[in-house]
């Protein structure tokens, strides 16, 4: 069936089976492989994307349900100059990327958090990431990277 | 994993959804957040030939006051319910239950109607809805019907919902003035956990400081989620005390065993249920020892 939606800011039309999840639509029909395929049952968060600004597991969203809606994947996250966003820079600096498999999902969960709560507490950050598993267990650095971004956006710390 | 194919159609109104769900020659299922159906699909357990998307029907998305009750559309997500001022003010046990579901990703998609219709043993909203006296209102080809949630859900993954019916909303009476609520959940970790045991509770004292009303609804505990009237009876008409809440906890554990029998998890669940009943009652009746 034909599915029309906004993907990373661009109107997109794709022809795909009606019975696949958004995750497979993105990876197999649109060749956007930044969204990772992990557990496929909504437990690991590796496939997280933004749907109308809310973080969701793309493995649990039936693809046709995005008709007419707004989807942002990791490929749609970038800074004003087209390079990495400030959050992505902070992940690199804080050592928050180890094997990297959870990173796209972490970036999207954190992006959704900061859009709603620009000054989250550490417990709020931890809760916002509770649907994203990092099997390298590098959670401290990931939370540190988000805190660093918060401080920088508040003008309390300049970028190195 | 699944090789079973199915169709997809979006319904714009309740009437359209009902017609699609009851169209002859096709097995259709209503689809809201997909958090249960897509897991079934992944496990190769597709038992439908068509999904009818009801997530964009405005009637299913309402949260509003109606006289002395709060109306919550079946398509309201756990995130929306947990954050809504009307629910936080009047139904904090339900707000807490919704907030305890899964992860942000799951709460942003999963709906209260889906949680009830799927009727998992560990469904977090069930004890809260039953404790708060929620009535499910559903549409069927034979017209509108309603049932208390405690009677709609008849067992694990079993409901009395007629074939082709669609839950439209839940009507929840506002608890009386002075009533306090609690929701407690025990899982293996704080987030993303399946309830091992939960409890929704409500209590109110009269002018003399005696228990005028109390409702205790454990979740993930008996196959049909229900109020534990024996534990409630111990409290009614009494002034809350250390001894009284301890007895109520013991009575709740005894009632669980009487209903569900002894199984592998009972050795854990007996003291755990007694403890969360005590904890909830301490919180509601302002007894010391509960932060």
Structure description:
The complex is a heterodimer of chains A (160) and B (291). By secondary structure, chain A is of the alpha+beta class. Chain A has 2 domains: 73 residues, Ubiquitin-like (UB roll) (Roll); 68 residues, [2Fe-2S]-binding domain (DNA polymerase, domain 1). Chain A contains 5 helices and 5 strands, in the order ββαβββαααα. Chain A is globular, with a radius of gyration of 16 Å. Chain B folds into 3 domains: 47 residues, Uridine Diphospho-n-acetylenolpyruvylglucosamine Reductase, domain 2 (2-Layer Sandwich); 116 residues, Uridine Diphospho-n-acetylenolpyruvylglucosamine Reductase, domain 3 (2-Layer Sandwich); 105 residues, Enolase-like, domain 1, CATH 3.30.390. Chain B is of the alpha+beta class. In chain B, the strands form 4 sheets. Chain B has a 5-stranded antiparallel β-sheet, with helices on both faces. Chain B contains 12 helices and 13 strands. Chain B is 35% helix and 24% strand. In chain B, helix 5 runs antiparallel to helix 8, helix 10 packs antiparallel against helix 11 and helix 11 runs antiparallel to helix 12. Chains A and B meet through strand 4 of A and strand 1, helix 2 and helix 6 of B.
Write the layout of secondary structure elements.
The complex is a heterodimer of chains A (160) and B (291).
Chain A (H helix, E strand, L loop, with lengths): L1 E6 L2 E6 L6 H8 L18 E4 L2 E4 L12 E3 L13 H8 L9 H14 L5 H7 L10 H15 L7
Parallel strand pairs in A: 1-5
Antiparallel strand pairs in A: 1-2, 3-4, 3-5
Chain B lengths: L6 E4 L3 H8 L6 E4 L5 H6 L7 E4 L9 E4 L2 E5 L4 H6 L1 H6 L1 H8 L4 H4 L4 H7 L6 H7 L3 E6 L2 E6 H4 E3 L2 E2 L6 E8 L6 E7 L10 E9 L5 E9 L9 H7 L6 H19 L5 H19 L7
Parallel strand pairs in B: 1-3, 2-3
Antiparallel strand pairs in B: 4-5, 5-10, 6-7, 6-10, 8-9, 11-12, 12-13
Helix pairs in contact in B: 5-8, 10-11, 11-12
């Amino acid at each position: 069936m034909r599915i029309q939606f906004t993907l990373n800011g661009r109107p997109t039309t794709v022809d795909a089976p009606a019975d696949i999840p958004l995750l497979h639509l993105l990876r197999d029909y649109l060749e956007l492989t930044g969204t990772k395929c992990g557990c496929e049952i909504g437990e690991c968060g590796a496939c997280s994307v933004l749907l109308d600004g809310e973080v969701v597991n793309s493995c649990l969203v039936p693809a046709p349900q995005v008709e007419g809606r707004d989807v942002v994947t990791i490929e749609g996250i970038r800074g004003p100059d087209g390079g990495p966003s400030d959050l992505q820079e902070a992940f690199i600096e804080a050592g928050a990327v180890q094997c990297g498999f959870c990173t796209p999902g972490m970036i999207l969960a954190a992006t959704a958090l900061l859009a709603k709560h620009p000054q989250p507490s550490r417990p709020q950050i931890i809760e916002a990431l509770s649907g994203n598993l990092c099997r390298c267990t590098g959670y401290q650095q990931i939370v540190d990277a988000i805190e660093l971004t918060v401080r920088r956006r508040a003008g309390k710390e300049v970028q190195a | 994993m699944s090789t079973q194919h199915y169709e997809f159609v979006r319904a714009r109104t309740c009437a359209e959804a009902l017609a699609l769900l009851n169209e002859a020659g096709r097995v259709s299922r209503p689809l809201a957040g997909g958090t249960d159906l897509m897991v079934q699909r992944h496990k190769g357990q597709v038992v439908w030939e068509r999904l009818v998307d009801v997530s964009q029907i405005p009637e299913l998305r309402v949260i509003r006051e109606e006289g002395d009750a709060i109306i919550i559309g079946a398509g309201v997500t756990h995130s929306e319910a947990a954050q809504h001022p009307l629910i936080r003010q009047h139904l904090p046990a339900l707000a807490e239950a919704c907030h305890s579901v899964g992860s942000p990703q799951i709460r942003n998609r999963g709906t209260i109607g889906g949680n009830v219709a799927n009727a998992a043993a560990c469904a977090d909203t069930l004890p809260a809805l039953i404790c708060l006296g929620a009535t499910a209102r559903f549409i069927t080809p034979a017209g509108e019907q309603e049932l208390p949630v405690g009677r709609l859900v008849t067992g694990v993954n079993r409901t009395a919902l007629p074939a082709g019916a669609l839950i439209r909303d839940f009507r929840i009476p506002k608890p009386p003035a002075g009533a306090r609520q609690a929701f407690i959940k025990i899982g293996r970790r704080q987030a993303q956990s399946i309830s091992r045991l939960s409890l929704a509770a409500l209590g109110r004292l009269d002018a003399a400081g005696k228990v005028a009303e109390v409702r205790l609804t454990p979740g993930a505990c008996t196959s049909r989620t229900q109020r534990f009237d024996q534990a409630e009876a111990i409290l009614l008409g009494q002034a809350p005390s250390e001894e009284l809440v301890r007895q109520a906890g013991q009575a709740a554990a005894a009632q669980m065993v009487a209903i569900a029998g002894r199984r592998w998890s009972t050795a854990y669940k007996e003291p755990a249920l007694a403890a969360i009943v005590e904890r909830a009652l301490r919180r509601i009746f302002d007894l010391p020892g509960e932060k």
